[in-house]
């Protein structure tokens, strides 16, 4: 019984860390993966570098984004961080 009481604070600390740090991070990773898998032509996105544009082509690991009329860039899918609501680019 004595050894259990000495390890109880350590066990409690790991349980609290799991619920406060690990579990929310796993949830964010799942949401990001589902967003990347759902990317489609015509979606308006923002990249990790702050570039805004419209998706013109989606491949397995790369996405082609039109940042201006006639100007397209190719970025990795994981560089896309945010899916913007439709019409956001016209409002800018």
How do the strands and helices of this protein lay out in sequence?
Elements: H1 2-37, E1 44-47, E2 52-58, E3 62-68, E4 71-76, E5 80-84, H2 88-91
Antiparallel strand pairs: 1-2, 1-5, 2-3, 3-4
Strand composition percent: 25-35%
What is the end-to-end distance? Answer: 66 Å
Number of strands: 5
Helical run tally = 2
Oligomeric description of these chains? single chain
Give an overview of the whole structure.
The chain has helices spanning 2-37, 88-91; strands at residues 44-47, 52-58, 62-68, 71-76, 80-84. The radius of gyration is 21 Å and the shape is rod-shaped. It contains 2 helices and 5 strands; from the N terminus they run H-E-E-E-E-E-H. Strand 2 and strand 3 (62-68) form a beta hairpin. It has 92 residues and is of the alpha+beta class. It has a 5-stranded antiparallel β-sheet, with helices on one face. Helix content is 43%, strand content 32%. 5% of the residues are buried. The termini are far apart.
Please give a handful of descriptors for the protein shown.
5-stranded antiparallel β-sheet, 5 strands, 2 helices, 92 residues, alpha+beta
């Amino acid at each position: 019984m004595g050894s259990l009481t000495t390890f109880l604070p350590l066990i409690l600390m790991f349980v609290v860390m799991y619920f406060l740090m690990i579990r929310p991070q796993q949830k964010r990773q799942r949401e990001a993966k589902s967003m990347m898998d759902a990317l489609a032509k015509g979606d308006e996105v923002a990249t990790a570098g702050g570039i805004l544009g419209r998706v013109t082509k989606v491949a397995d690991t790369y996405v082609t984004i039109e940042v201006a009329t006639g100007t397209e860039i190719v970025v990795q899918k994981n560089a896309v961080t945010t899916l913007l609501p439709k019409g956001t680019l016209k409002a800018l």
